[in-house]
Amino acid sequence: MKFEDKGFLLKKNKFNENSVIAEFFTENNGKATGIIFGATSVKIKNFLLIGNLFNLQFNSKNQSRAGYFKVEIDKIFTPHFLDNKVKLNCIIYSLYLIKILSVENQANEKIFNQIFKLYELLNRSNWIKQFIFWELEIIKLVGYDINFKDYVDLSLTNDNQSYVSTSDGTKKIPSFLLSKDDTEVNIDELKIGLKVVGDFLNKSVLTPNNINYPSSRSEFTKLI
């Protein structure tokens, strides 16, 4: 199998002294895994950061042996956020989420394009609110959608109410998850919104598929 493509680095693990096993999410081939030989060279290692975009050449002689990548940096994204711990952890979690929810060699151009949108929203003033909807969109693109209006008592909704009770009265959902407008949301509502989405992700997506809840998400949300 051979292909040339563009891909965002999702993860890398040391393979031997000079090489790594890398996972990329590519535009036309979905998630792809292979070895990068010489990954510790100055030409490569300074750019080989999770979230950066690369031009890739992939070659695999047969399915029983691991393929390998030749890589060239296309665009730097992650280094722009190295001084912002919260946003950097958001990037790490977001790329890991795509890694655990995507299928090897299954193209999904919409997910690929969502990575560009992630970097766009990180430069906005209301980026946390936008990220919550970004995360829900990624979950939707792998087949798990949720309409929060189906779980709340809409008779309790009014213009001045920040939270809406669920129909069974067990929890409150921030009203911004229902309206999806551009109004400002305070940090307490955002934290609760992140928790609500995290519960949905864990109970409806991860646990049924025997996937552990990402520690990187917990680390990210603790920083907010």
What does this structure look like?
The chain starts with a strand and ends with a helix. Helices cover 37% and strands 21% of the residues. A five-stranded mixed beta barrel has the order 1-2-3-5-4. A two-stranded antiparallel ribbon has the order 6-7. The model has no long low-confidence stretch (mean pLDDT 90). A hairpin with a 3-residue loop joins strand 2 and strand 3. Helix 3 runs antiparallel to helix 4. It folds into two domains: 78 residues, Nucleic acid-binding proteins (OB fold (Dihydrolipoamide Acetyltransferase, E2P), Beta Barrel); 144 residues. It has 224 residues and is α+β, with helices and mostly antiparallel strands.
Task: Give a nutshell description of this structure.
With 224 residues, this protein is of the alpha+beta class. The protein contains seven helices and seven strands; from the N terminus they run βββαββαααββααα.
Helix share of residues? 25-40%
Biggest sheet features = 5 strands, mixed, barrel
On the 0 to 100 scale, the average pLDDT is 90
H-E order: EEEHEEHHHEEHHH
> Shape from CA axes?
elongated
Structural class: alpha+beta
- The helix tally amounts to 7
Domain tally: 2
The poorly predicted ranges are none
CA-based gyration radius:
19 Å
Find the count of extended strands (DSSP E, 2+ residues): 7
